[in-house]
């Protein structure tokens, strides 16, 4: 896969549960662009680490897994993207809280981030790319034509994740989800490597009181005006 630096990018960043995945897939579908769920890359590595019994403290082992990982995001509008890793669909496995916690622990590791950076940039292909994550507009695609930072209150984001996981049949606890999201926010925003923050020229959009259609319309208006 060859990166095309001339292909436009919509960088869609924000904390866990802010709606990046749903919004990103809808935008990709409407634009007819490729889609990258960068969180799935870290969750995918976390799943591989569990599957291969590689500890989060084994940085060399994690890097080796990252270097061998092939990941594809298949758009499923109004649902989570179907994730394929090394030829195996592992979408459900990647959505568990355990996998998310491990992903959050390995994400700050500089050698791991470096090994996954090139993979993400190779996803930039014509006619364009919608990339969602936490550092798409600041680190991965700093030259992206469009940068959006989605946010929402921790309570709203916990409820969204609770509803999402419940609908998939997972046994989850709202209070524990809220605690996990708040802890992850602190970790993501205070880490030395690629901390969670809006790009200087990002369009910041609070989705707490907005419907999915309203968020998409707002982003489309922003893109069209650019």
Automatic annotation (TrEMBL):
Binding site for ATP: 14-22
One of the GO biological process terms: pyrimidine nucleotide metabolic process
Keyword Chaperone: no
GO CC entries: cytoplasm
Coiled coil: none
Superkingdom of source: Bacteria
Enzyme Commission number(s): 2.7.4.25
Pfam families: Cytidylate_kin
Reactions catalysed according to its record: CMP + ATP = CDP + ADP; dCMP + ATP = dCDP + ADP
Compartments, record wording: Cytoplasm
Family of the protein in this entry: Belongs to the cytidylate kinase family. Type 1 subfamily.
Name this polypeptide is given: Cytidylate kinase
Originating species: Arenicella xantha
Gene: cmk
């Amino acid at each position: 896969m060859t990166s095309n630096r001339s292909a436009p990018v919509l960088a869609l960043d924000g904390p866990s549960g802010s709606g990046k995945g749903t919004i990103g897939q809808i935008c990709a579908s409407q634009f007819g662009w490729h889609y990258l769920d960068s969180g799935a890359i870290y969750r995918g590595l976390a799943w591989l680490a569990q599957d291969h019994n590689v500890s989060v403290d084994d940085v060399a082992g994690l890097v080796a897994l990252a270097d061998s990982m092939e990941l594809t995001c298949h758009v499923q509008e109004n649902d989570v993207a179907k994730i394929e890793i090394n030829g195996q669909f592992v979408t459900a496995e990647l959505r568990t809280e355990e996998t998310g916690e491990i992903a959050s622990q390995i994400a700050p590791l500089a050698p791991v981030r470096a090994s996954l950076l090139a993979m993400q940039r190779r996803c930039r292909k014509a006619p364009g790319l919608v990339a969602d994550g936490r550092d798409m507009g600041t680190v991965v695609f700093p030259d992206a034509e469009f940068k959006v930072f989605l946010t929402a209150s921790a309570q709203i984001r916990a409820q969204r994740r609770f509803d999402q996981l419940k609908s998939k049949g997972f046994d989850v606890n709202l209070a524990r989800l809220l605690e996990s999201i708040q802890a992850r926010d602190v970790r993501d925003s205070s880490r030395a490597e690629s901390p969670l923050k809006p790009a200087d020229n990002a369009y910041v959009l609070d989705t707490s009181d907005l419907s999915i259609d309203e968020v998409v319309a707002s982003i489309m208006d922003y893109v069209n005006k650019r």
